[in-house]
Amino acid sequence: MTTSQSLPSVREAVRRTPAYPFTPIDARYKLDQNENPYDFPEELKVLVWERVRSAEWNRYPDIHADHLREVIGRYEDWDPKGIVITPGSNVLIQKITELAGIGQKVLTVKPTFAIYQLEASMLGANLTQVPLNPDFSMPVEDLGRELAAGGPGVFYVTEPHAPSGFLDDRAAVEAVLEAASNSWLTVLDEAYHQYAGCDHRDLIRGREDRVLLRTFSKAWGLAGIRLGYALTTPALATELQKLVPAFNINVLTAATVEVALENPAYMHERVREGVAERERVYARLSEHPTWQVYPSRTNFLLIRTPDASAAYRGLLERGLLVRRQDSGYTLEGCLRMGIGKPHENDAFLEAAFELS
Ligand SMILES: *Cc1c(COP(=O)(O)O)cnc(C)c1O
After folding, report:
1. In sequence order, which residues have a C-beta less than 8 Å from that of residue 256 and are 6 or more positions away?
2. Looking at residue 80, what DSSP letter applies?
3. Which GO terms describe its molecular function (predicted)?
4. pLDDT tens across 131-161, in order?
5. Is 98 exposed, middle or buried (0-12, 13-18, 19+ CB in 10 A)?
6. pLDDT < 70: residue spans in the chain
7. Which residues pair with 86 in a beta bridge?
């Protein structure tokens, strides 16, 4: 990749930030992006298509996806004025960093979800990452110390955590949220909450300094449709909404998400299977002679191998694409495997034991 010197107009913070680390690779079994292994149900696609077809494509959509905010508000029992919608929650992470991180602080843990770091770096925030405990639980006291030093800035918490899959006790989540004064904008990212059976909406409700992030990319099986949302107070949503470009939710995305929310049974069914498969793969992998698997409350498993590069290549040779995680803090040897369909998980287990 070429960088820097020839583009003096580009801000230095952007030039020195690496691009999002992802290389598309073709493989028979695609277990690298934590996607839902099942496509959106065909009969629901038909309903979406009817709605998209009768919409006027020559007209701009709702300025701030107002109708979709109402539908999400009903589903989540949340005031639609406190909801902000973007094409994927990654965009919300960028907007929140613009809102309260530029020239201020960003606090999170390490290892963590790459986007918090990337946005902090590109937007010139002062980034602090506190090491997680060895079991990937939150270091409540260490975070408390950083929080006590005060913001202003953004504090990112991920429950369950990525890339480990660990779910903290509710008491730990409450403790770090309580330790953050209102000079911090606390963001709780619940991208995988359905797989954990956790729901922290009540810790966010009515709090001007707290935001909950959710997405349609994982449990709902709609990563290709791009939709994420923030739940917060109307006052904070009004400020955050200013940073979101107008008309940014297209007709197809809005129609798809509305149909999904009117027919949520498919999602619950897939989450049930995903959780059962996760536990099955976890139990079997726990018997692996050289690989160590970490308990997970998400739709993926973090696995420590003696040699991440060799394990990754060995899996790929057997048609299995996973994600390397070994460049992350304390993640030497680690790979991340997204739970697939039962036969894909079988193929993974077979390969894993061949590679021991
Ligand atoms: C997958 C994921 C998201 C969702 O990203 P989208 O842009 O909504 O697809 C957010 N946070 C974490 C931690 C994730 O793993």
Report:
1. 40, 48, 222, 225, 227
2. G
3. histidinol-phosphate transaminase activity; pyridoxal phosphate binding
4. 999 999 999 999 999 999 999 999 999 999 9
5. middle
6. 1-5
7. 228
C-alpha 16 – ligand 1 centre gap (Å): 24
12-40+265-355 and 55-263 share one fold: no
CA distances from 215 to 31, 241, 287 (A): 19, 17, 34
Give the Cβ contact number of residue 39 at 10 Å. Answer: 11
Write down the residue that tokens 């494509």 correspond to: 57
Query: 115 is written with which tokens?
Result: 């986007």
Separation of alpha carbons 339 and 323, rounded Å: 12
Cβ pair 183, 146 in contact under 8 A: no
What is the identity of the amino acid at 8? P
The domain spans of the chain are: 12-40+265-355, 55-263
Report the pLDDT value the prediction gives residue 21, as an integer from 0 to 100. 80
pTM of the full structure: 0.96
Residue 4: what pLDDT?
54
For residue 230, the CA-to-ligand 1 centroid distance in Å is 12
287 CA distance to ligand 1 centroid (A)?
31
Cα 134 to ligand 1 centre (Å)? 24
Could you say which of 3.30.750.24, 2.40.50.100, 3.40.640.10, 3.20.20.150 is the CATH number of the domain covering 55-263? Answer: 3.40.640.10
pLDDT at position 332: 98
- Give the homologous superfamily in CATH for domain 12-40+265-355: Aspartate Aminotransferase, domain 1 (3.90.1150.10)
Q: Ligand 1: does its nearest atom lie under 6 Å from the Cβ of 215? A: yes
**Nearest residue by C-alpha to atom 11 in ligand 1:** 191
Peptide bond into 111 cis (omega under 30): yes
Q: CA 73, CA 67: separation in Å to the nearest integer?
A: 10
Provide, for the chain, the percentages of residues in helix, strand and coil under a 3-state DSSP scheme, each rounded to the nearest 5: 40, 15, 45
Residues 6+ apart with CB under 8 A from 231: 76, 78, 82, 83, 201, 204, 211, 212, 214
Q: Is 159 in the pocket of ligand 1 (CB under 6 A)?
A: no
Take atom 10 of ligand 1 and give the residue whose Cα is closest: 191
